[in-house]
Amino acid sequence: MSKDRPTLLTVRDAADRLNVTPRTLKYYEERGLVSPTRSEGRYRLYDEDDLERFARILRLRSLGFSLQGITEMLKRPLESTETGSNRFSTESLQAIRDGLSQQVDALDARIEAMRRELKEAQTLKAELSHDLDYVVRRLAGENADTLLKQRREAQAARKSKKSRARDESA
């Protein structure tokens, strides 16, 4: 192989070199953290940049960072310090913070929407339970007029309870 061409590793060779399973590499690719080149036969091929990126991902995972956090971090460059180590600049850290904050805000909005949907589903379930109870009792032979009277009384009691609850919270 020519020295001009970079060395490309198969998924097995790259996994062995990084001391992980091939599935780990494929998982990070599925998550969009790395995009290896493909051979004509569509095999994944990893170059040194891919391996460095994987090593960075693995270091961040070992430190307990989430994949979402790592995704934000990979968007930002590392800068060399006086001691020779690589660190994020203040600007990069602020951008990471902003990206993560946006994700948290979006999740908060989704959680709130799910809570509203859950509350609506619980209300619908309660209404259907009353309907089901009526039908089951009718099938058991109970008198329709008696059941309808009980149903109206129960409905009036529920409305009264809701009204009292609104008055107490006001």
From TrEMBL:
Q: Which domain of life is it from?
A: Bacteria
How far does the signal peptide extend, from start to end residue?
none
Q: Which InterPro entries match?
A: DNA-bd_dom_put_sf, MerR-type_HTH_dom, MerR_fam
Q: Which regions form coiled coils?
A: 97-131
Q: Does the keyword Plastid apply?
A: no
Molecular function (GO) terms listed?
Answer: DNA binding; DNA-binding transcription factor activity
Q: Which UniProt keywords apply?
A: Coiled coil, DNA-binding
Domain called HTH merR-type: residue spans: 8-76
- Extract the SMART domains matched here: HTH_MERR (SM00422)
Protein name (Swiss-Prot/TrEMBL) = Transcriptional regulator, MerR family
